Amino acid sequence: MTTSNPEDGRMAQRRHELFTDLIALLERQLQENGVAPTEATLIASDLADRLADHWGGQNLTFPKDYRRKLSRIEIEIYDAFKGHNLGEVAQRFNISERGLRKLIARVKKRLNAHGNQIGIFDVPAPPSA
Length: 129
Known about the structure:
By secondary structure, the protein is mainly α. It has 2 domains: about 5-55; about 65-115, Arc Repressor Mutant, subunit A (Orthogonal Bundle), CATH 1.10.10. Helices cover about 65% and strands about 0% of the residues. It has helices at about 5-30, 35-55, 65-80, 85-90, 95-115. The longest helix is centred in the first third of the chain and has 27 residues, at about 5-30. The radius of gyration is 22 Å and the shape is elongated. Residues about 115-129 have low confidence and may be disordered.
């Protein structure tokens, strides 16, 4: 005699929603990048199947960490900063010079924590009053 766990049905529904969302996102992104709709659907479905096969049975948590979402723009800003163009970069990305200094310091700290090369640029110290 087996007993049914109500969580099993709920989790199956959540998995289905995750894969449905993933396929829709991939199809849209592929089509926006010039892949024909039929091919986009096949590629998206294949990727979803591969993820299910590879990660099936694992319990994963997706963080809601806004910092991960910012990482691409942070790196873009960091790469634009050359050590002498603080005002130009701040204006280009519509942030304050103080905010840019903080961002550069934060990115450097993350890169140092991961052992990545930072480069030779130092963030200029704020002007003293």
